[in-house]
Structures are given as C-alpha cells and as structure tokens.
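ugh finaly. both done.
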Amino acid sequence: EVYLTGEGYFAVTASPDRPFVVHANHAMVKVLGTRFNVRAWQQDQRVTVAVEEGTVSLGSEGAVEEGVVIDRGMVSTLPGTGRPSEPRAADIGKHLGWMRNEAFFDSAPLSEVLHQLERWHRVRIVLEDTTVKEDQLTLHIQAKSLDNALELISALTGLGCERSADTVRLRPATGGAN
C-alpha cells in the first residue's frame, strides 16, 4: 500500500496474493499487475486514473464497491464527492506527458493550468481577477519555458502578465504591453 499526494506513475507486477493499493486523497486504486498513472493534487479535489496497460479499479475510500473498473487506454475521474466517472477512451500519452515535462490540457480550468506552472517553476501565480479562474483552456505547454507558457495564456485569456522574483501576477490587460 502506498499513499500519494501529487502525481505518480506505477508499473506493478502481478501478485494475486498481494494486491497493490494506492491511497490518493479520498480515493483508493487497486491493481494486481499493470501500468497506470494517478493524479491527485490536493488543490484539485479530484483523482484521475489513466491506465496504460492492464486493469485497475477506482473507488472512494470506504466505498470501493461503488467504484469502476478501468481497462487499458481508459481514464476515469473521481470528484471530491460522489462516484467515479464511467471510464472513457483517452490518449494515455497525454496523461503521461508530465514524465516528459509536458502538460496537455483539454477544456481545463485556468486555475488547473496555473497550478501546474507553479509546481514546475516554483513560483507563486496571483490571479488578480478570480472571475476567470474557471475559464476553460485547451493547450499544450512544456516545462522548459515559463515565459512561453505565460505568453500563451495571456494570448488566450487577454490577461496581462507581470513577473517579479518568484511571483507572477495575472491581471486584466490595460492596453499596455504584457
């Protein structure tokens, strides 16, 4: 059994006598032999499991019987409360992008994109207009350049960007340069 906060990739050898269990936030993932990714950042309040090979089950701690079985090439998400989503086909490579210092966002809230940038670059990002934090973005970013990512986000959202030391401020643009 392991306890995870954040994101982790697991390659587990089958051992029917000793199931492998990942506890992540409020979720429990059980496997016998597979390769899969678990994303469980505390600020997101959800757990996403992407299966590259094999099969896993995903359910809430204490209510695993209400969980779902996720097969190869499928993804399921367990929100902060409730039941996991029905597994759906997904590009698993995109879910594993973090292992290549890439992140793919498909209709993700701006706040989720900003959290990823904060983790990668060890900066604090202040969103001065919080009404846009749930705006949905679809983009691909790489960890190597914070400036490139901020430029892309500014272009997509219309927000201006100001950097100082380890803090980035995003605010409504005022007609000046970003």
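ok and the 2nd:
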Amino acid sequence: MHGVFMEVFAVGVLITGRAGAGKSGLALELLDRGHRLVADDVVELERDEHGIVLGSCPPLLKDFMAVRDLGVLDVRQIFGDGALAEATRLGLMLELLEDGWSGDALEGTRSRRTILGREFPVVALPARAGNRLALLAEAAVRDVELRRAGYDAPAALAARQARWLRRRREP
C-alpha cells in the first residue's frame, strides 16, 4: 500500500492521504517524539497464520524517507537505530485530509476499512497549517486503544450529561 507506516505507542499506524498531504512531515514529527518508522511510501502488508496483519518495508527502501522540500533522508543516520522497526502489527489508519475537517464534534471523522480480510479503524485528520498533527495522531492512537478496551469517551460524556440533567430536574 501507499503510505507511511509508523509504530506509535506500540501500535502500527498507517498514514494515508494524497501526495503532498503531509504524511512524511507527520512521520518526521512522530520520529522526533520517539516513535518508530517501519516504512515510507511503500508498505508491504501480509496476514500471518494467526490472521494478524503485519506491515514492513521493502528491502530496497529500508531506512529511507522521501520528504517533500528536503529530499531523501536516512532515518537511521539522523535518529539512530531505535527510530526504526522491522515490522509491526497494523492497528489504525490515519487519513490526512487536505480540505479540512467535516467531522462531528463528538465523534470526529471515523470509519472502518477492510485490509486482507480484517477490519481496521480509520481516523481522518485535517492536514492544515497550525494543526499539531503528531499530537492529534498520538491522541487518536490512545483513543482507539481505549475503545478496544471498551471505553467510549462520547458515550461517557453523554452519560455524565444525562445524570447532570436528571439531578437538575429533581426537587
């Protein structure tokens, strides 16, 4: 697949979007924050014998990133060996939107996508100037992990508001 594959908080995150949307820039920010690059531009995805979808980098491209306005960078030379991961398990897709955000204030812009017979959450992020994309990406990863564990922040907020309204109505 086309995109940048990162390991963020031990979760494989596939960053997608149009050319020039900011995928490599976001990857650089995440590397700077201590996360790890698996693959840039071309991500090889395969399903293992347990049904887990793993992503890795083609050997020809290993260690390198192509960054608009900078050219080709050697991630190992710039950030060190710890900035790279051989392969990791796909857990989330982040889609960078150039046209801004059209999501719901409580739910954001979320969907699901099937890859190699497995369904994955997709979170769309607006790639516009001034957005702290790395921070948004980290929050999205943590939120997806909380949802997997059974916690739903919008539902928790709605329940809190309902309790508050009930107490206000009581004499």
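summary for the 2nd one i guess: The first strand starts at residue 2 and ends at 8.
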